[in-house]
Specification:
428 residues, 5-stranded parallel beta sheet, 18 helices, mainly alpha, Serine Threonine Protein Phosphatase 5, Tetratricopeptide repeat, DNA Cyclobutane Dipyrimidine Photolyase, subunit A, domain 3
């Protein structure tokens, strides 16, 4: 009997996994496979923090499969040649996978589909990007999404049947995803489907609505890395929270909408991962300064809320969303260092580094993207701290020592507005 290969990518779960479910429903043996091939990710291979998470997530997925009489086969790329070899080794007649939406991956997957019998599914989004016209503003986009009708209900956990003989697998440690120096020792996470499920069960949407902008409180879900790696899907979260949609649930469900919007933008405007959506910002007079960039990266700017966020990022692989906006605004507007530099640093240090979300967030702050905050909206890091960390507990936790500011915010604000006037007048 021919087997089915299920190619796991950013869908590292058994529940509500359409590709796996379809393979199981064929009634044939299933070969779960993960292929490590960072060179096929284009300019954005997984960063260091993402690799740490991936190692533990793959281990968790393999353990979950083994509990059910299956296992995860790990191979190195290239993907097309690896899948061909696996089909020959196992007698599989088709490959199933769940879609990804990064430009380099879309191009890669088209080539594989042209060379192999394969079928792809949607596990990552509530709505496919091509189902809607290109939008640049969130509110009409989300209204159009909701007008399409009910979100499909998540399916249960699929249990794949094992083949009579397993193909060889590369040991997970040979992928060398973990850092040689243990800078991740402070990471307080449980990668994997079980960890995602625990966070969702603990999440209080009413607390989120009231406390989501407070980094000194733990009011957010912290599900973002689990969503990125597909250890939980948006349909699962939607189904869990929609019963509160008339009250507290909608605040968080709207954030799922912003995630959808980020993927919509990256699909329709694939150049935006590296270039501004608004072309006039290509001539923005950035003033790169390696010393100041390094001070920002290390959390040594002298502004407690900014420094606390950057130190939290380095220590935990994560940063509160309100603080992300503040530190990003400080980099691009107080220091006039390009949003691309910030995006690359986040990409390497965030456990939830996601190309669509990272691009949307940085271009939003820089004023160069879709539905962006105007460039002249410049966060004051001091007043932001007073408003969102009113007792200073978050800042003191991460920045116990006083540090002199590397720039004067009032002076930096005037400089940023002058730079904006230059591109308005067509000057570089």
């Amino acid at each position: 009997m021919s087997a089915t290969i299920v190619w796991f990518r950013l869908d590292l779960r058994l529940a509500d996994n359409p590709a796996l479910q379809a393979a199981v429903e064929r009634g044939r043996p299933v070969i779960p496979v993960y292929i490590w091939v960072p060179e096929e990710e284009g300019k954005w291979p997984p960063g260091a923090a993402s690799r740490w998470w991936l190692h533990h997530s793959l281990a968790a997925l393999d353990a979950s499969l083994r509990q059910r009489g299956s296992r995860l086969i790990i191979r190195r790329g290239p993907s097309l040649e690896t899948l061909r070899a696996l089909m020959q080794e196992t007698g599989a007649d088709t490959v199933f996978w769940n879609r990804r939406y990064e430009p380099a991956i879309i191009a890669r997957d088209k080539t594989i589909k042209a060379g192999l019998p394969a079928e792809s599914f949607n596990s990552a989004l509530l709505f496919e990007p091509w189902e809607l016209k290109p939008y640049r503003v969130f509110t009409p986009f989300w209204k159009a999404c909701l007008a399409k009708g009910l979100i499909s209900h998540p399916v249960g956990r699929a249990v794949p049947s094992a083949p009579s003989r397993w193909p060889a697998s590369v040991p997970l440690n040979e992928l060398q995803l973990l850092p040689k120096l243990d800078w991740a020792r402070g990471f307080d996470w449980e990668p994997g489907e079980a960890g995602a499920r625990k966070l969702l069960q603990r999440f209080n949407p009413s607390r989120y609505t009231a406390e989501r902008d407070r980094p000194d409180l733990r009011g957010t879900s912290r599900l973002s890395p689990h969503l990125h790696f597909g250890e939980i899907g948006p349909r699962q979260i939607w189904a869990a929270l929609v019963k509160n949609a008339d009250q507290s649930g909608w605040g968080y469900l709207r954030q799922l909408g912003w995630r959808e919007f980020a993927h919509h933008l990256l699909y329709h405007f694939p150049h935006t991962a590296d270039e501004p959506l608004r072309p006039e910002f290509a001539k923005f007079p950035w003033q790169p300064d390696r010393k100041q960039l390094r001070a920002w990266q290390r959390g040594q700017t002298g502004y407690p809320l900014v420094d606390a966020g950057m130190r939290e990022l380095w220590s935990t692989g994560w940063m509160h969303n309100r603080v992300r906006m503040v530190v990003a605004s400080f980099l691009v507007k107080d220091l006039l260092i390009s949003w691309q530099d910030g995006a690359h640093w986040f990409w390497d240090t965030l456990v939830d580094a996601d190309l669509a979300n990272n691009t949307l967030g940085w271009q939003w702050v820089a004023g160069s993207g879709a539905d962006a905050a105007p460039f002249f909206r410049i966060f004051n890091p001091t007043s932001q701290a007073e408003k969102f960390d009113p007792r200073g507990e978050y800042a003191r936790h991460w920045v116990p020592e006083p540090v002199a500011p590397i720039v004067d915010h009032a002076v930096a604000r005037k400089r940023a507005l002058a730079a904006l006037e230059k591109i308005k007048k067509g000057k570089s």
